[in-house]
């Protein structure tokens, strides 16, 4: 798939993370980076807000369709270039950052920690992430493992905040 092909299909364009899923190697990492960069200008309205949570929920629901339809069109479940799930997973971590970490580390270090922890859990896929990734079909299956990777990253960040601040 090329960028010109993606631009012709808005569903595929969004599923491929505005084209970031075309970057190789490691399109999931590039997609996560694109999601963080896209998030940062809007962070003041999103971090710890109901608006951020509602946007996450909408992004997740839309993502089920985007990822499922694109995977169906490509004939490959969870094709590596589909990175909307990485967008939503890392946005979950960024929206729900512990306030005490933000106060002590600042936004840039928190964003870096969110990026690293999310990618770690998305790549390693500890139980039950791997189990769900293998067994839940369609767009929900594509989305759910990244949401869980985000939740695992959040657990580490919130435990760190509780233990150290």
What does this structure look like?
By secondary structure, the chain is mainly alpha-helical. The chain has one domain (3-15, 28-164). The protein contains ten helices and no strands. Helix 3 (27-39) crosses helix 6 and helix 6 crosses helix 8 (107-124). The chain is globular and about 50 Å long.
N-to-C SSE series?
HHHHHHHHHH
Unreliable sequence segments: none
What's the overall geometry?
globular
Distance between the termini: 47 Å
Outline:
With 165 residues, this protein is mainly alpha-helical. Helix content is 76%, strand content 0%.
Write the layout of secondary structure elements.
Blueprint: H1 3-8, H2 10-15, H3 27-39, H4 43-46, H5 50-74, H6 84-95, H7 99-105, H8 107-124, H9 129-135, H10 138-164
Helix pairs in contact: 3-6, 5-6, 5-10, 6-8, 6-10, 7-8, 8-10, 9-10
Summarize this structure as a short list of keywords or feature phrases:
mainly alpha; 165 residues
């Amino acid at each position: 798939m090329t960028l010109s092909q993606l631009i012709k299909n808005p569903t595929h364009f969004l599923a491929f993370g505005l084209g970031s899923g075309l970057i190789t190697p490691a399109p999931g990492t590039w997609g996560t980076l694109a999601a963080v960069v896209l998030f940062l200008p809007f962070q003041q309205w999103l971090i710890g807000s109901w608006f951020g949570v509602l946007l996450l929920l909408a992004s997740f629901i839309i993502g089920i369709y985007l990822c499922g339809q694109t995977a169906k069109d490509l004939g490959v479940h969870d094709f590596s270039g589909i990175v909307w799930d990485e967008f939503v997973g890392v946005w979950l971590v960024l929206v729900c950052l512990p306030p005490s970490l933000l106060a002590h580390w600042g936004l840039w270090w928190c964003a870096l920690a969110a990026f690293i922890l999310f990618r770690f859990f998305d790549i390693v896929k500890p139980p039950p992430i791997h189990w769900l990734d293998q067994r839940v079909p369609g767009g929900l299956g594509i989305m759910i493992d990244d949401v869980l990777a985000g939740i695992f990253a959040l657990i580490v960040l919130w435990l760190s905040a509780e233990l150290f601040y």
